[in-house]
Amino acid sequence: MKKPIIPAGSWPALLREEYAAAYVGESSVQTFLARVGKMWPAPFIEQGTGKGKYRVWRKRDFDEIIDPESSEGDPEPL
Fold first, then answer.
1. Could you give the maximum distance between any two Cα atoms of the chain, in Å?
2. Bridge partner list, 55
3. Residues 6+ positions from 39 with CB-CB distance below 8 Å
4. What is the pLDDT of residue 26?
5. What is the pLDDT of residues 17-47, one digit of tens each?
6. DSSP letter string over 32-76?
7. Angle at 53 between CA 51 and CA 55, to 5 degrees
């Protein structure tokens, strides 16, 4: 599978697993998923099972882990 290419500054607020893996710089979705719950947070939304499983992470949750100082004082979205 080809890595998603997102223009700089254009990351969506909610990331499916392919985009979440790319956003945090993991080499593959499998590597990313292996670190979920250890290094990376659990999904914000997780529904379904098997191939129909739907998982979404919040970009801001990754931002808080990657650079906690930069997210301090950011207002919570409505």
1. 39
2. 46
3. 65
4. 96
5. 999 999 999 999 999 999 999 999 999 999 9
6. HHHHBTTTBPPPSEEE--GGG-EEEEEHHHHHHHH-HHHHTTPPP
7. 135
Spatial CB neighbours of 41, under 8 Å, sequence gap ≥ 6: 57, 61, 62, 65
Q: What is the amino acid identity at position 52?
A: G
Pairwise CA distance, residues 31 & 11, whole Å:
20
Token representation of residue 31: 């590597």
Instruction: Specify whether the CB–CB gap between 53 and 46 falls below 8 A.
Output: yes
| b/e 16-45 (16+ beta carbons within 10 angstroms → b) | ebebbbbbbebeebeebbeebeeebeebee
How far, in whole angstroms, is CA 33 from its chain's centroid? 10
Query: Whole-angstrom Cα distance, residue 17 to residue 72?
Result: 25
The residue with tokens 């392919």 is 18
